Amino acid sequence: MEKYSSDSLDKLSGILDYREADLLADFATRSTDGIRRFSEKGLASDYRQNFAVDVDRILHSMAYTRYIDKTQVFYLIKNDHITHRMLHVQLVSRVARTIGRFLGLNEDLIEAIAIGHDIGHPPFGHDGERILSKICTSFNIGGFHHNVQSVHFLEKVERKGRGWNLCLQTLDGILCHDGEIHNLRVEPISGKKFSDLESEIEHKKSGDPVSLIPMSLEGCVVRFSDTVSYIGRDIEDAIRLGLINRSELPQESMSRLGDTNGKIVYSLVTDILLNSSGKPYVSFSPEVSDALKLLKKFNYDRIYMNPVVKKELSKIERLFKEMFSRFLDDITEKRISSPVFKNFIDGMSDDYMAGHCPAEVIRDFIAGMTDQYFLRQSPEALRPRPISL
Length: 389
What we know:
This protein is mostly helical and 389 residues long.
């Protein structure tokens, strides 16, 4: 294998920086602008640019690996062709990088935010999130929010509590990605610091009203792309499972966006490009925004709240509560044979253990579980049954 001198690697890195200066739009984030909590000796001689390093670190994280068995929308349904969390984040990444390329933005930063944005999702998707949030609130450790947990995992849980020391711009984009909130336009708030990130996290956990706006256009693009990626895909999954028929889709939305996932994605991406190119914000047109808002309501009423996919939810909630209490008791009684010790606490850094009360440790352990691992920790007689459609 050919070896390169440090001078030649520095030159390669410099070429990329100069290329960015020539190619990126005025509103784009330069890789040289990346801010980390602390400097690393190894990065000083690394030829990769800042946000490319973040992409690599997220890709190689244990939490990213667990995307493979985490629910997107439909759980307990045996179908190899419905979307799971792993595919969703890849779809978000692809859509966002396509938009970013046309807008002249930093595609490495976009990719880092996109692939990391759902790292903190617990098992069983948004239903699991709501259940875990109620439990966390009852233990006075703040509400549970997957975007907050994503940042927490990458900063304080991964690598046995050492975290990945990712750039502020990456973490901020992950925190502010919320695609469930409908926006016509989002304009970034530049100049944030790590103290702002921490303040926003605390307000969110406390339930205070807080508007999470990304500090970068790249973060805004990922936020819009989250919606673009799931809205039509969830419809196709629901049709495949027989929950809805294509003919039931709202005509007002279909006439503007199309009636298949491919058409919907293309329409939304095209509209974003036409209304955001050369602008310091990311935006839909009012007409497309209204059509999308109507389609979101349809998805919520007919898919996400469909009683057919909720029929085992009470059992899942019971298991969450039972598991949280059981593992909390294991910590209190120091039962080192418990999975919470063997599969989570053992090897954790002193800083992590000193900075987290037992309930927070259990929160982090359960939030990191895949659907199947969660079920394996539960008594077989109490497990929910597969849903047949």
